[in-house]
Amino acid sequence: MGVRIKDYQLTCNSHKQYDVIFDDTEIETIVTRDPAQVCSWVNETEETNQCRLHRLIVGFDIEWRPNFISGAAQNPVATLQLCVGTRCLIYQIIHAPSIPWRLRNFLNDDDYRFVGVGIENDAKKLLNDYGIELSDKVDLREWAAEELDNDNLRRAGLKDLVREVVGTQIYKPKSVTLSAWDERWLSLDQICYACLDAYLSFEVGRLLDSCDDIIRETIKEDVVEVEVSGQSSIASSSIIGSEEILKVDEEDNNPKNDEVEREVSILDEETYNMIEELETKSSGGFYYGAKASQKIDDQIVIESNQETDTDEMSLCYGVALERVSSKILNARAPNLFITFVSR
Fold first, then answer.
1. Which residue intervals define the domain 3'-5' exonuclease in the entry (predicted)?
2. Against a cut of 0.90, is the pTM above it?
3. What are phi and psi of 47, to 5 degrees?
4. 135: left (phi over 0), alpha (psi -120 to 50) or beta
5. Among 196, 125, 191, which residue's Cα sits nearest to residue 166?
6. Residue whose C-alpha is closest to residue 120's, from 103, 140, 104
């Protein structure tokens, strides 16, 4: 995924302003060591998000210069990054003359949820280095593992979480990760890196939070009974653009898989109708691999041009469907699978 940066080339000494452009999203980024600029950023953030202050999600990350001497103590935190929506702050705390109480109060507000990868350790380091407390902190790895029902994500890095939750790839070069973060003037590569860490932490948290809402509503929905005669099936979530894709693979005709009855909470009526159509036309059989995919592609691609909130809804509907089906039914089918991607 390409990343670009626009430098506003401000002549003032208090801060620098950039637009970091990621996947056509412009992230307004302030780089500063001035406490007054930090207070301004916090004030503007709260004013802009007044309607959601009771549950504000804030992307969080820190950077420091690595110490390559064996047994030596870690260097102190050099930058603190915060992001809400498309507004990012890179606070060069190591060069700051003081740490404003406005920032301390913001970070210690119980109404705000700070999200990041390995955030517990980052919070401890920030406390040890500067005496700054972080109140409500959530590790995105644990949150994603629970929402997506995937324990492997508990050991994932931000790159893996972005791929699984946001559905895009990012590149994190080691040359930037291990660079001199305590320099007075950060390079453009460092600014892009620091900004995206905070922004993508926010995005992952935002999408997972949306899934929480969807899943809570889903559990209340009436459960639709689907009978799949002569074959087993398993519903799972996937994030592949804005299309709905149905893949059907061949079963092994094992008698123990016959007459499987399942209850699946179907959030998308069109998806349910497609399953019924395939079942009816196959007369107890089924379509094979590419043939099934082609059939669905022909039907769906035309409809997928409608304007929809694809990023959030494709994830939430898919996750909600998987969570409800897997937890209620615990169905297993190694030879036949159905993958839903809601528009």
1. 29-216
2. no
3. -65, -40
4. alpha
5. 196
6. 140
Residue 210: domain span: 3-218
Question: Are residues 146 and 123 both part of a single domain?
Answer: yes
- Verify that 116 and 192 share a domain, yes or no: yes
Q: Regarding predicted confidence, which is higher, 33 or 341?
A: 33
Among residues 196, 218, 240, the one where a domain terminates is: 218
Are 195 and 84 within one domain? yes
Residues 236, 251 within the same domain: yes
CA angle 309, 61, 184 (to 5 degrees): 120
Instruction: Give me the number of domains the chain comprises.
Output: 2
CB atoms within 10 A of CB 236: 15
Question: Within 10 A of 196 (CB to CB), how many other CB atoms are there?
Answer: 27
Here the tokens at position 117 are: 């990868």
29, 75: one domain: yes
Which parts of the chain are beta strand (E)? 3-7, 15-22, 25-32, 56-64, 77-84, 87-91, 112-116, 136-139, 224-228, 235-237, 260-264, 338-340
Q: Quick: pLDDT tens for 114-156.
A: 999 999 999 999 999 999 999 999 999 999 999 999 999 999 9
Which of 259, 299, 311 has the alpha carbon at shortest distance from 275? 299
Residue 58: closest CA among 121, 123, 9: 123
